[in-house]
Design a protein that fits this description.
The complex is a heterodimer of chains A (152) and B (148).
Chain A: E1 15-18, H1 21-30, H2 41-48, E2 80-89, E3 98-112, E4 118-129, E5 135-145
Antiparallel strand pairs in A: 1-3, 2-5, 3-4, 4-5
Chain B: E1 20-22, H1 27-37, H2 47-52, H3 62-77, E2 82-89, E3 99-111, E4 114-124, E5 130-139
Antiparallel strand pairs in B: 1-3, 2-5, 3-4, 4-5
Classes of the chains: A mainly beta (152), B alpha+beta (148).
């Protein structure tokens, strides 16, 4: 099957995400991080201007997305792997911020697989803006559709 | 633990970052991360589903491992100083696996008025297999400025 380049440029609906203190605490615990920056308001205010979310916390946008935020990939979801993930931080994010996330498919390409057949890659970029409209973070995810059902 | 304060001038290319170790991942760890992150793909918590999908059991979300690995960067530079964090997923982590996360400084540079450090990261299991590899960019305070 030829790769479906038509998906490039496909954009999801904007998702409103509240950066919540309790959710930050739960997330920090889940990654076993006891840095007081995530738990202690006084310490965080002094060190970072307030409680900040952990580096990979923006993934929790999943809680705020009813599905319409994610642009549809030209993929069979049973054969999809998460290949890469990147976060770029352009301005501080703190508990209490309300972010708007917009996701867009920026690339779709094909590569030969290690065991024959081909793998299709899709790059989705999500931009997070705060309530002042400032771009605070960018996330980039590479999804891979394998030639067959995923095995190690 | 809070990050140790470091100045850009005191860091050298090749320096190793403080390691992060997590011993014996549990299914409960996966469930906690599912709730925290919103990743409810049953392949990570439902034994029946995992087996039906051809897996011996459930396995960790790649992003759980990535979250654990990110602590190498925040422990080294402090969360507010992280500018970029990128990971590539290699091997899956299973219940009972140990995760060892490490990193090193590969380059120092100045860009956009900031003193930056670039580095490589890796999370491996108890067999030495790479779970994730990654890179980061962080800004560090300078001895020359009154900030920090």
């Amino acid at each position: 099957m030829p790769v479906d380049k038509n998906a490039i440029g496909r954009t999801g609906e904007p998702v409103t995400m509240h950066v919540e203190r309790g959710k930050i605490r739960e997330f920090a615990r889940a990654i076993k991080d006891d840095d007081p920056l995530y738990y202690d308001e006084g310490h965080a205010a002094k060190e970072a201007g307030g409680i900040m979310p952990p580096v990979t916390f923006l993934q929790t946008v999943a809680h705020w997305d009813d599905g319409r935020g994610r642009p549809r990939l030209p993929f069979d979801l049973k054969r999809v792997l998460h290949g890469e993930q990147e976060f770029e931080f352009l301005a501080p994010i703190h508990a209490g911020d309300v972010l708007t996330a917009v996701s867009k498919i920026v690339d779709v390409y094909e590569k030969p697989g290690k065991r024959g057949g081909s793998m299709t890659f899709a790059v989705t970029e999500t931009e997070y803006r705060n309530d002042k409209g400032a771009l605070v973070a960018r996330a980039r995810a590479v999804g891979i559709e394998t030639g067959q059902v995923v095995k190690d | 633990m809070p990050a140790t304060k470091r100045f850009w001038e005191d860091v050298k290319e090749g320096d190793r970052l403080p390691e992060v170790h997590v011993d014996k991942l549990t299914r409960t760890d996966f469930v906690k991360y599912a709730g925290a992150s919103g990743d409810f793909n049953p392949i990570h918590h439902d034994q029946t589903f995992a087996e039906a999908s051809g897996n011996p059991t459930v396995f960790a979300m790649g992003m759980l491992n990535a979250g654990i690995l990110s602590r190498v960067v925040t422990g080294f530079a402090g969360r507010p100083n992280v500018r970029r964090y990128k990971v590539r997923f290699s091997t899956r982590a299973w219940p009972g696996d140990d995760v060892v996360c490490r990193g090193k400084v590969t380059r120092k540079l100045e860009h956009g008025g900031e003193k930056l450090v670039e580095g490589e990261l890796e999370a491996i299991n108890q067999k030495g297999e790479t779970l994730i590899s990654g890179t980061f960019v962080a800004a560090l305070p300078s001895r020359g400025s009154s900030g920090a």
